[in-house]
Structure formats: structure tokens, C-alpha cells
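User: Show me sequence and structure for the first protein, then do the same for the second.

Assistant: Starting with the first protein.
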Amino acid sequence: MTPRWKKNRLCTLLGIDHPIVQGGMVYNSGAKLAAAVSEAGGLGLIGAGSMRPELLRAQIRKARGLTDRPIGVNLPLLFSSAKESMEVALEEGIKIFFTSAGSPKRAIGPLKKAGCVVVHVAASAKLAMKCQEAGCDAVVVEGFEAGGHNGREEITTMVLVPECATALTIPVIAAGGIATGSQIAAALALGAEGVQIGSRFAITLESSGHARFKAAVVEAGAEDTHLVMKAHVPVRLLANDFRETVMDLEASGASREELMTLLGTGRARAGMLEGDMENGELEIGQVAGLINDIPPVAELMTRLLDQYDATLSRLCGG
């Protein structure tokens, strides 16, 4: 079934068929997932946040061997090796960067000089406006429902998208709480020109997440996720022993230092990549309640497009 959208500014900007971007999720967004999404007509992103620069280089080259469609890199700017990773990606010919976790001003100069498209992730209209002023080509506005690290503003996607679409002149990409074609239709109806989908793509065959992590998400409901460490580094996690320990510490008034010591290093890797379901950090969005299977990306993309078309047909009385 052919989707009913015409090629919009975002599709033209990114060189894609469908205005669907795969989120750059740590320990889930490797070459196989990015290439599969791009091959299906969306934009796949390799998540640099969980990779050392040379691993990023290898993953970019692997993705290039799997698709000749555009791929991008998600680059958290507070990541200790962000500058080196950016240089590696540029050396490998990446022309699309989705930046996050910091000010886009830290990277936009060299990226624009290299002729790249730069898109930044923001959790409020105020921050989104700063992205536009900094020279970003588009902005991802991510609502409170999203998995992983969130903004402190706790603004939901349903409110954030129309606010930003009204205030900005650059394309707005909706993120947070999107896992179905009907939700894509809702985001576009609110003024977005595309969507970024994370959690739903994390639970596909091509995702590099561990099988136990994927299975746990399939079994989970929306009520099984919770945003913790809101005063320090907000992150939405699936229920397990680690999350309960964090919540108990927060309730007791633990300091940032105590919480960061508990977080330590390697928690996300242990949970999502290695499958430690009790002591690992399991990042996933509220859409866990809508994820009931682990399909290949091509099948999922077809499903999203069919759901989108069916939603428009229903709304138009077809």
C-alpha cells in the first residue's frame, strides 16, 4: 500500500522516502538496525553514544556494506569521545548527524563546514528555538514518554509537538511515545514533518539489544516504565532490581554522588546488550505497552505504513 504523504521538507533534507527516523539508542543502534531502516525507506542512525570511535568506524563501514541508502550518526555531545567520534564519522563520509545531550553550538560549526545536515534533540520549545537559532536544519522534539534519557521539563509529546511546530520555521520531528502508524498520523496532524521512533525499533530482529531485554519489553506494560533520577540525569527504565534500588535511594534523599556511584559504569551495557535483567539498566519508553512482538525491520515498516493509511482512511470516512 502506498502511503498518502507527499515527499515533504524532511524527506528531501534527509534523502529518504518515508519521514521516519530510527532513534540512536545506546547498545541497540548498530549497523544492522540502521541499514535495515534506511533500506526500508526511512533514516537509520548508528548510535555513537555506546561506541568508542574505532568501533563507530567499523559500524559505519558495516552499514555501508548493507545499504547504499542514506544513514546517519547519533552523537551525544557530552560523551567523552564525542569530538573524536565526530571526526571519525566525517572521515567515513557521514553527512547526517543527529546530536543530543548538550548544546548543538559545540558541533555545528565543523559539521556545517563539512556540508552536513545537523538535527538536534530538544525537550522544550525554548531549547528547540535555540537549536534553530544555532543553525540546525531540523529539530527532534522529544516528549516525556520517551525511553532512555529525557529532559527535566516533563512535557508530553502531545503538547510539545504543536508548540514547537508553531514556533519554528525548520522541520519538526516528533519523538516520544510513537510506535504505531496511527501515532505517526497523530504526530503529523499536530504539525510535525516526521517522527523519530526509538523503543519500537529497539525491539526488532536487527537491533543489537539482547534477546532477554527484547523479551522483557514484549511482556511489559506501559505502567512498567518509570522516570528516575529526575533531579540529576533523568532516565526512563523498565522495572527490575536495579531500578527499585535507585527509587529507594531517591526516596531516602540520596545525594547525586550516591546515585551516580550506584549507576557506576557499564549498567546500560550490562542490561540492554548483555541481558543482565536484574542489575542492568533497561532503557525503554512507555510504548513498551504497545510492543507485542519482535519483527524484522522490513515487516515493521510495512506495518507502520499500512497502519498510517488505515488511520487516514478511517478519519476520512473511507
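Switching to the second protein now.
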Amino acid sequence: MLVHANAKINLTLNITGKLENGYHTLDMIMQSVTLADDVYVEAAEGDRVTLSIDKDGIPTDEKNTAYKAALVFLREAGLKRAVTINIKKNIPSQAGLAGGSADAAAVFVALNKLCGDIFTTEKLCEMSREVGSDVPFCIIGGTCRAEGTGTTLKKLDDMPRCRILICKPDINVSTPVAYRLCDEFGVDVERRNSENIINGIKINNLYTISSNLYNKFEEVLDLSEVRRIKDIMLLYGAMGALMSGSGPTVYGIFESDDLTSLEMCRTRLEEGYSQVYAAEPASSGCVIE
């Protein structure tokens, strides 16, 4: 079974507090996009999970979220199966686009379908929290508000049609460092970016959405490459631009009928960056083909 595992971007990401166990509480609006990994899943008689990936440097054992997803599913289902997973990576790794979480979500969805839809979507999301905080969203997909530790999800109406240009610079970002800096800066629970974007979605106003993009991590990390990419995107006609997740990937939102501006921006970015992708909003996280 082939599943297209869609990446995610953050329209908003705000840190609203810190729990006694060290986890942070968040307020995010997350959006699936059509940049996707191709995840092939098969289940047969046996009891071994096998994972292969077409990119070097990515673990193919219990350290991989897709591998973990298979183990959790089989355990919760009380089943023994020989599960074979093959992933064709299109989503950049360690990019703030939830590529690993998307792959795990695809495994949950595929195995559930192969085993006769034995779990509801709600149960799959509950199970998937053990694998990663972004996995439940990647199962549901579309446009969602995420609160709590990021796993309390509320499905929203679809984002208006638009084009999204995605660019990952060749730098690394430490998520623990990003959280530590957020702790030093302090929380800002009064921000209304999420509410404003939800209103923009309700009235189908892309300008309202684009003008309320916000990412606390981008603010505290203050990365020069992120600023440079945003400047290029805005110069070439993006309605708004933002770093996604803990970065370093940046995306820009373009009007759906403004293909010329997007392509000019894409050409300009490709002069300095090797990972540039055009996408659109997706209404689901996983698409079974």
C-alpha cells in the first residue's frame, strides 16, 4: 500500500507555558502541504519489522519514527505481522516540516487499513502520541489548532487556496536550545495571531492569514539565513513568510493565481539553496493511493 505522507508548516507557533515535567505548552495552527514522502507499507505473516529509506544518514531501526509506529500499532492491535516499510523521502529531514512524524502517521494509517480499519482515527491519534507529538496532527492533517503539549487538536476549515514556496537552508537548529531561549525570553500568552488566522480562514481571507503568521522560535533564534530567505520571498511577492517549527525551513505564501511571482522567487532562491519546493495546502495528512 502506498501512502503519501504530507509535510506540515506552522502558521503560528507560540510557547504559552512550561509544565512541572519540563514539557512546554503550545498554541499552534498547523497546515498540511502537498510536499510529501511516499511511504510503502506491506503486512504479511511473520513478526519482523523491516524499514528501508532511499536517503543516507536516516536510521532504519527503533530510532526511526516509522519503525516505532509499526511496533506500537502491532502491540496495541495484539497482532504479529511481518511489516515491510519503504520510504521515498521528498520532505527534507530535520527541517521543521514534521517529515519523520508524517512517515510515522502514514504507517499507522496504512497498517490500520491493511488490518481492516480496526481502530478509529481518534484511537490512532491516541496511540501515536507515544511516537511523537506531531504524529497525531499528521494523521488528521488539513488545518488544525494544536494546544496543550501540541497533541490537543481542533480541526479547522480548510485554508484558502494559495501557493506555498518552501526553502530549507543548509544549517542545523537545536530544538532544545530553541526551547531554552524561549524560557529566557518568557512566555506571551496574550498573542492573538492564532485567533486572527482562524478568523481569516472563516472569511477566506488570505491577507489576514498571511499578515498574522508568527513563530516564537524564529523570534528567539534570530537566524540570519532565515531572515535572508524571508526577505527574498517578500521581495518577490510573497504575502507573508515564516520559519516553520523549530526551523530552519522557511515558507512563503503566494496568491494561487500568481504563478509568475512564485516561479521568479523559486529561481532566485535556487541560486543559493539546493532544497526549494513548491506546494499547496492539503486537506489531509495522509493520502492512500
